[in-house]
Structures are given as C-alpha cells and as structure tokens.
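Dear all,

This email documents one entry for the complex benchmark we are building for the journal club exercise. For each entry we list the sequence lines for every component of the assembly. Then comes the predicted three-dimensional structure of the complex as a token string, followed by one or two observations. Please use this as the template for your own entries, and keep the labels exactly as they appear.
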Amino acid sequence: MAVITYRQALHDTLREEMLADENVFLIGEEIGVFEGSYKITAGLLDEFGHKRVRDTPIAEEGFVGAAVGAAMLGLRPVVELMTINFSLLALDQIVNHAAKIYGMFGGQCSAPMVLRTPGGGGQQLGATHSQNIELYYAFVPGLKVVAPSTPADAKALLKAAIADNDPVLFLENLALYNTKGEVPDEVAPAEIGKAGVVREGSDITVIGYSRMATVATQVADRLQQEEGISAEVVDLRSLRPLDRETIVESVRKTGCAVIAEDDWLTYGVGAEIAASISDGAFDYLDAPVRRVAAAEVPLPYAKPLERAALPSADSLTTAVHQTLEAVGHRR
Amino acid sequence: MAETATRTKPAGSGSKSRRGGSRSGGSRSQQRRGNTALGSESPETLREYFRQMTLIRRFEERAAQGYTQAKVGGYCHLNLGEEATVVGLMSSLRGSDYLFTNYREHGYAIAKGIEPGRVMAELYGRTTGTSKGLGGSMHMFDTQAGLLGGYGIVGGQLPLATGAALAIDYRGGDQVVMCQMGDGTTNIGAFHESMNIAALWNLPVVFVVVNNHLGMGTTVEMASAESELYKRAVAYRMHGERVDGNDVVAVNEAATRLVEHARGTGEPAMLEAVSHRMKGHSVVDPAKYRSSEDAEAARAADPVAAFRARLIAEGVLDEDGAAEIEKAVQADVDAAVAFADDSPHPDPSTLFDYTYATPVANDSRRLPADPVF
Amino acid sequence: MTEIHMPRLSDTMEEGVISAWRKRVGDQINRGDVVADIETDKAVMELEAYDEGVLEKILVGEGETVPIGTPIGLLGDGSGSAAEAGPSTSAAPAPEAEESGQDDTSASSEQSGMGTATRPEPSRDGTSTGTGQRPKASPLARAIAREKGVDLSTVTGTGPGGRIIRVDVEAAAERNQGTASPAPSATPAAAPAQQEDPDVEEIPLSNIRRVTAKRLTESKQQAPHFYLTSAVDVTDLVAFRADLNERLRASGGPKVSVNDLVVKACATALRANPSVNVSYRDEKLFRHKRIHLGVAVALDSGLVVPVVRDADRKSVSEIAVEGKEKAERAREGKLKPDEMTGSTFSVSNLGMFGIEEFSAVINPPEAAILAVGATREEVQVRDGEFVARKMLRITLSADHRAVDGAVGAVFMQQLTSLLEDPIRIIA
C-alpha cells in the first residue's frame, strides 16, 4: 500500500499496461517529447520509443480516428486528448465511428480503445478550456464513460478500460491530478458500470463523480464531525452505464438526495440521476431531489466570477442543510 | 498527357523496403488519360472485368427496384456509371488488403468478394446480410473479404483507414489499405488531417477519390478551389494522379502501381478516378439540377456498354459470349434477390446483442415503454 | 402479364400521383424506358420500367393518387390477355411492413402481486376524497400514511410550504395509537422500534409483498375461514405418476408432478361441486362458470399465484407444462398481470419442504384454497393388518360466507376418492 497522486497512479498504470501488452500504445498531442501537458506520460517515450508513444499533429479528428482504425485491427490505443474541450474536434470520430463500429456492423469488429481526457474548471482557463462536457459522451450507447475520483479508482478503472473491447472515455479532472490517496500494491481492474457507496450514512444521500465525488466525501466527513449528520456518499465512477440500483438503494434508505456535479444543471448528468431517483425511489422521497451544479454561463476568466459559477464544498453543504431542513431532520 | 507538380519520384519503382526506408521526399501529381491498350491483360481477366461490371450494373438496377418495392429502406446510393472504377480498383487489391469506402459501396462490396446475395440481404435488412441487417446500404462490413466498412458520414472513413494502415505498420504487415471517397470529401477537415498524418508517418494507404463531377447536386467547381483534385496531394508531399475512371484497364493499372508501391515502401498515394454518375445522388433524387447535356454525356460515357463494345471490337468477346455472360449475371442477381427475400428478418429479441463487445454491468436493456424501475 | 406498381420514390413517401403517363396503351416498353412521371411528396420523379412488354392497360389515370405498391398499369405480350386478366388484387398490397415484433405488454409485469385485479386506489393515500383538496405531502409521507392508515387531511405539514413530511405522519400515527382510535387496519404495536433498536433493520417492502400483505390481511379479517383436513392414501397415485412419466418420457412428453395431479383432480372435483367454485363479494354470492386454478409460487420477493385457466378442460400434461412455464416466468418477474388474476380456486403446496399439513389463507375473491402437504410413508391398518402406505394430507380452507361445511366436506370426499383412484383423474 502506497500513498501516491492521481497523476502517478495514471502514469504507473499506463506503464504497467504497456509492459504487459505489446498492442497497447499511447497516441496524442505532446505526450512524448513534451511529456504530456499534465505530465501523465512523463518518461514513457524514453522507455518505450516513438512507436508506442506517438506524438501527433494538432488534428484531433485525424488522430482519434486513426486510433479507432488501429483498434479495429486489434491494437489497443490509449489516446490522450489534451482536455475534454478539444474532444469536440473529434466528436464525429468518437460518436459516429468509435461508438458505432461494433453495433453497426453486426458485431464483426470492435474498437478496443481508451480516450483519456481531463475536464474541469477553476484554473482561470476561460470559457473554452474549462468545460465539463462528459455528458455528450455519456449520452451515446456504444461508448462507456468512466470517471474515477481517487488514485486507487483511477488505477482500477484505467486497467479495466484498457482491457475492455469497447471504446471507453476515461474522464480525468485537472483538480484531481495532484490529489493523493492510498493505492494497494496489487490493484484488480474495476467493474465498469458500477457505482460505489464510498461513505455510509442514514440521513441523506449525496451523489457525485470525479472531482465532485471527492468534494462530497469531504463535506460528508465534516458534517459528521461538526454536526453529527450522517450523509451517505455515492461515487458514480461510471456515467455509462449508469448504476441506478446503487443510487436508488441509497435514496430508499435515506429518503432524500443531493447531487453534486461540475457540469451545467440543465440537461446535465444530475438531471438523469434525479429522474432515476423518481423512477426507483418515488415513494421513499421526503423532499425534492436537489442538484448542485455549475452556473449556466460561459465560464468567465476573472477569479471572483469563476468562483461564483462553480460548485464547491460550501455550495454543496448549503444544499445538504436545506434538504435536511426540508425533511425535518432532528425535529 | 501527364501533368506533374513539384518534384517527382518514380512511383511504382519502389524497391525500397517499407521499414527503415527513408521517405523519398518527392511528390508528384500527374494526369493520365485515355484508352490504355488492352494488351497487358489476359482475355480471361478482361472478360472477368466485364462480368463484374455487368454484375454491378444489374445488381444496382435491382437494388433500385427493391427500393421502389419498399424492400430496401433508408438511403440507397448506387454505383451506376462507376462500374469501371469499382472493378479496376478492386482488382488491384490482394485478398488480404483492406478497403474502407463511403456509402456508395454496393459494387465495392461485391467486387471485393462478398456474395451478391449477402449484399442484397443487407439492403433488405436481413440477418444474412453483410452486417446482419444492422448496417444497411451505407454500412456494410466483412472481415473475411477485408471490407472494413462502408461509412455514411462524409470523410469519416479517412481517419479510420489511416489508423488501419498505422496498425499494419505497427505490426510490420504487408497489407495495404485502400480508402475510397467521393469528390466532395476532399473539402472536409478529416481529408486534410488524414492525408497529412498518412504522409507524415509513412503509412501504406492509397486514397482514391471517385470524381463523378457531383457532390449531391454541387459540382466540383462549385465546391473546390482546386478542382483538379489529385493536385491536393502535393500539399502533403504525396504522390497524386488522375485516371480515366471509365476505363477499367487504366484504373487497374494505376491502382495496382500505387498499391504495390505502398506495399513496398509504406508510402501513401492519392488516385483520382474521373467518371460519371448515371443517376441521381441516391435513388430518390431525380437529378433535375443536371443539364440535359450533362445527363446525356453521362449516358454516352456508359462504361459497361463501352467496354463491351471494345472487347467485341478487339476480338476478346463475341456477341454470343457477351450475351452468355449477361445471362449468367442476370441469374446471379436473381439468385441474390431470392436469397435476400427468403432470409429472415432480425428478431426484436436480438435488439441488444451488439451494443457492447465486452458485456458490462447495468447496461440498459429497456424498450421505449418499459419502466426504468 | 406483369404489373407496374406505384413505386416508393422517397424515404417519406406513402402515396403518389401519376402526373403524366409517358407511354400509351399499346406502346412497346423496354427496360429503362420512362413510363410515367410520378409526383411524390418531394418531387416529380420518372418511373422507369423494370420489365419489358407492351403496355396493355392503364389502371390509374393521370392526376390520381394511390398508395405505393398499387398496380397502376399492366404489361403484356401485346395480345391483350393481360388487360383481360386484370390486376392480381384490386387492393393495394401494403409495402412490406415491419413486423410488430414486441408483444404489447411492455410495462410492469412484476408489479401486480396476488391474483386479484384490483390495485390500491389513489384515495388510499389517506386524502379525504370528498374535499377534492389533495394535501401537499412528500411521496414518503404518503407511503407511510398509507401503511399506517393515517388520514393526511388531518395532518399538519411542517415541511417547506406546509408540505407533510415523514415526521409529521409518524407523529400523527403515534397520536392515533394513543387515542386508541379504531384504525381500520391494525398497525403493529412495535412500530417505533425500527428507529431505536440497532439490532433491527428495516427491509424495504417489494410491491409483491406489499400487495400480498394487504390482500391476505383483508382475507383473514373479512372471510371467516374454516378448515377440513383429509388424509389421502396416495400409494397408487405415486405409482401411477411414475408410470405416467415413464410413458410420457418415451413419447417426449413433459414430466408430471404430484401437484399437477392434485391440481387436475381439484379442477375435476370443482366441476362436480360448482358450489365451491364461488366468490362472496359485497354481500353477494357469485358462481364461476369456468374453473381457473391458481398455483402458488414462493419467490424471494413474496408470493405470486400464476393462473392455469380452464384447468378442468386441460390434460394433466398440459397443466404440467403450463404450470412449470408460468412458475419460471414468475421467478423472472415476467408474468403478465392477466396471468396472475382471475383464479377461482387455489392450490398451495409446501410438501417439498417436508411440511406434513398446514392451512392456507384464502386468496380473495376465491372462496377456498387447498393446502397440500408432503407425501409420507405411514403405517396404516387395512383389513386388520398393518401395512405401509404413502399418505398425503390435504387441508381445505373455505370462506364460510360462501361455502358451508357440508359442501366443503363433499368436495373433499370426492377429491380424496379421485386421488386414491388416480386413473379417474385423467379419465
């Protein structure tokens, strides 16, 4: 058991998988000579050479599509998209091609590939570089979308994604790269499509993924210590498929829920979760499901505006308090 | 006759080994015209070209008929008028070579070696179709035949084809990828990104532009600043050339040269085959935007009729021999239709069979009226 | 003779107009000739001939609209025979439609529990239906009110905007108990225990269990049960079944269980005793003309009772096949609601657990249910001798409002004699 960063967990897993399987190779912008925009791939070019760590031109559609084509012939490309914002340049190859190869051709061929990409705002990167648009991919049958929040999950889910025969969008987050956590020496691949109850509680359910799952856990810990509130935290881990059972089971127990998401509220991931709770836990709800989500603006550069627009531990705490008030907690 | 741009290299002379060979640094574009002499091809080969061209012609006519009978659904784009290009290209490939096409693909599927019955069954949406009825006219696939897909999105197949060539290169294989597209595709971003990547990484892929003068109703001149499309290869230091797409022998000669060069050196190339679309963009298009002269020119250039006349004139075939081939082809097409018609529709219970290659927890299998819980 | 049909010429086209005939009757037509101009919903298209021949008859004139697939003209050899023969069908052959593959029961099969048609009515929420005012209450508060028999119109909400929330209903339920109000359905006295006792956990109720609880409570409260038990000598029945299965196996038939034979025997006995095949409802007695037998199946989520319809008219092997199939689907939660409703008599069997005998709660609106125990070898006295016989105990629970003791006893007597002389079961 070691305590390492999320970045280190990704780096180590990529290296291990490349050592284990000759067919695994990395492809993306600035991943080799530059060692990756966020240094996930540092040192791998030296170790594996240009064939397995392939720097590309700035041509997202071209190189994502090339990865799909290579995957169709049995290689296992792990693509790095510098940020999820740039994935829009490759939308056609991801949605119209990677996601369709298996189904559209009657199961004759699949595209075993991973698209690693970070989302997230809060670094004053402005409107085009701060988005959380994983929903675009989570919407598409044929794709799988996973979103680890801890170093251990990052490792287990990346292993699973690389081993999977379908295209997997692997969502990272700029704010998580430096976070630390315990990672066992031997990590088994995670089961894609499963959420986790990362903290048990009985008063309220808080549901999050990626950065907001860690925020939810911190908030829950503090509420327990300072106010004796018992919040259960569900980390989605997988956005497609979505583990509705785990969400609903928790809400049936607690009777109320707050969803924490970094994306915009309208049509966001939280909307789907709230609808699922209505489907599966209607008779167990003692208050409306609340969503804590980003303000619906192109994210501004100036720090006070950016801070005001993004969900945080404070905004989540407020929503939890209001929801507990609504169910007469401790009355 | 040959137009050349920038520096030249001897395409087809590739003695350089694929791996480790440095890029030649040369690129040229050229235009070839004309009736290539038949001399280099054996009479058997020429007759087989004629048979395949006739097969595609009759098949496409029956596909159109199937559409009017509502046996064929969706969009339906035909290779009518492009038979010489299709057969010339496909006869340049080995069985192990890979083909990516756009959505105008029925003829390619047949000429790449798929049973016409399975192609028709796909149009009919039956389980025996090339994609088990899940793809339709635009999305045929056959691993055995090396058809790695027809693609409905303009330009979508180019990055994939480049990636397939990357996989071949990665493993040191000797296959070549051919990537077919229409003239309109040369204006989309994926075209430029893929041409650049293929040349940059020295990948064994031959990009073939089928220039039938029209992208739906838009002429090449209306859409492309450089309307001599093969010249676009120059920008990527790639060899580019143009060939008469109505001449099956010329197409085969040019394609074979470029495919074998790619096999030998790993260098990509671009081939532009100029032909005519005899009908509308798809079977539902009356092509009213075409001038009567243009339509007449397309009719007059009919590559199947022209090749038939040429084979008879040069003594490769006589009238009886041609009629015999036509009769046999007709029987093949009838059999294909019967096969398709007799094949089962997919059962709705199989709806979720091909969403994921690796089964996954919590995969939704609900039908529209099913409750989520 | 060849028909020319109105073609489909666009992806959205359903019918077309002949805007012009380009050939006239008597004209020779070659493949590829333009025969007519067709106006679709999008454009005027040329209809090209796929066949050769002489246009002998025009069936649809210019300006007329017909659905795709309708014959619009006839091609022949020029002799006129095609025109005489006419089109094969006057009506338009529908273009090959998609088969409507799915069955129409897409919705919630697992939600209806016991074999009764009624569902909890909305007014059961506790709202007083007279006022028309639906109190604002959370779904959880409504669910608890339903369960505890709290009338929401008497509860004051303390949630946001006066919404009635869980704590309000729980407080009201406690008050009700304190005042010993004659609650219509008794609530367990130890209700609050769930909150305090860490050794007790609440298990969320499945729908099946919720409905079962409600209906069986009603049954036991409203229907005065009486019980008749018979000891049946099934030595012959067991042998008969073994023999029957041997024969069925040889002919590829299904395997028949003792319970299948009991079900069939019940159906036969009910046919002979229609006074048991009845229902008592709203102070009225109804006699069922058809015999539909419910066969109870235990699931983790509760009890379901698939129904074998017209069991008296089915053979034992038909009952075996149908019962097995329905029980399997019940386990998968795939029974349709109408496969669990409408039974007129039920059989419940706990013999596989070694239960010697038991009495079952009547499954309303039925008037009786048969409880079947395990077959055991016992010492019996026959003609003054001790003999080992296979014995089975069956217990009829009957609703005394609908069935008298003697009527039930005659039914049991006949059922016993059928089971002891099993050839008559299949007679």
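Observations: The first helix of chain A runs from residue 6 to 20. The radius of gyration of chain A is 20 Å.
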